Structure formats: C-alpha cells, structure tokens
Amino acid sequence: MAVLSADMAANIEQRQVDAWRRLSPVERLRLVSDISLARSIPTPHT
To answer: What pTM was estimated for this model as a whole?
Structure first.
C-alpha cells in the first residue's frame, strides 16, 4: 500500500482508506466539495 501521509500510523491510514471506500460516490463528491469550499473561505489574519 502506498503511504498517504508520512506522519500517520499505518493502521490509522488504513482505517481512513477503508472508510473512504465505504462511501458512496455521492458521499465522496459531497465530502470533496465541502473541503474545497472550506479552503476557499478567507481566514482573518491574527
């Protein structure tokens, strides 16, 4: 299996991959869309 994140334990990474695989295509699309929207919201500079 490819390493997705060098700072994550392999068993946790596998759990995340398994959870992703259980999502329906619509759930995956919604999740990616929500993440993209969240990243585009400007954050105040502190």
So the answer is: 0.64
